[in-house]
């Protein structure tokens, strides 16, 4: 939880209860990192059940969003609304695999300086404005906690890699999310940065179209990389609140930033 921006989380928490947690083997949570995203989802479902919640809204970023997809698919009555940020679907037609180099830089980061450099390269665009937003994000994360938790160890990293490899293995496609997206019948908000090299626009469009029975909205933030919610924390929090409160999630109000929006993967609405 050390790598969570307090600005957006606190703003969201002004209007509703927010529960943050590290999955098994991450941060200060015990146990081993599961080697499949379904395994990650099982821990999420167990936590939600043990806390006594019958239904929740789920927000997840990057790999966490892969697990959130499986959580919603494997527990169809547990998730009321789903928000995915920069989250790849499992392998399928139209899905573009990200380059490996930035992932390798993150795995090699061993101190605060290298962690910041890796985060700036992986999560933010190379423009001056995006990099400045990234440095500000990292400062907020550090200042929010006196007990910053270390990054995941080598064994945990390898197990995360195994989970991602399975998700992207065509031979295991039936165990992933892409082929099952038609099962989802809930409101879904997908968020990406315009320059996100992990979650490419083509992948995003293929994913949204595959969710043919869900009420899907896609927002794309300009000038942002893999972590648009960190670059635009206040606007992101406003979007989340609108989505969670809306009676009709396909009619979310305009944001005070430029954006591109798809509805159900077909209609394109631009505000640029």
UniProtKB/TrEMBL annotation:
It comes from the Eukaryota. It comes from Colletotrichum orchidophilum. Signal peptide: none annotated. This is AB hydrolase-1 domain-containing protein. InterPro entries: AB_hydrolase, AB_hydrolase_1, AB_hydrolase_fold. Residues 13-231 form the AB hydrolase-1 domain.
């Amino acid at each position: 939880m050390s790598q969570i921006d307090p600005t957006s989380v606190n703003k969201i928490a002004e209007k509703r209860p927010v529960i943050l947690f590290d999955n098994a083997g991450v941060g200060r949570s015990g146990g081993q990192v599961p080697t499949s995203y379904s395994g990650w989802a099982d821990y999420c479902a167990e936590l939600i059940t043990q806390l006594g919640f019958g239904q929740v809204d789920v927000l997840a970023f990057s790999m966490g969003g892969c697990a959130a997809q499986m959580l919603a698919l494997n527990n169809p009555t547990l998730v009321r609304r789903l928000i995915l940020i920069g989250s790849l679907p499992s392998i399928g037609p139209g899905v573009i695999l990200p380059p490996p180099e930035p992932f390798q830089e993150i795995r090699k980061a061993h101190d605060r300086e290298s962690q910041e450099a890796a985060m700036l390269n992986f999560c933010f665009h190379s423009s001056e404005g995006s990099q400045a937003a990234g440095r500000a994000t990292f400062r907020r994360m550090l200042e929010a906690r006196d007990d910053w938790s270390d990054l995941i160890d080598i064994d945990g990293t390898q197990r995360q890699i195994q989970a991602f490899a399975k998700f992207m293995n065509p031979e295991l496609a039936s165990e992933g999310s892409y082929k099952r997206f038609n099962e989802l019948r809930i409101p879904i908000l997908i968020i990406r940065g315009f320059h996100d090299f992990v979650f490419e626009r083509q992948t995003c469009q293929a994913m949204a179209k595959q969710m043919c029975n869900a009420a899907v909205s896609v927002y794309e933030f300009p000038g942002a990389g893999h972590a648009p919610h960190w670059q635009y924390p206040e606007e992101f929090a406003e979007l989340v609140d609108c989505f969670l409160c809306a009676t009709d999630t396909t009619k979310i109000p305009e944001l005070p930033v430029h954006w591109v929006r798809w509805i159900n993967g077909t209609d394109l609405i631009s505000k640029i």
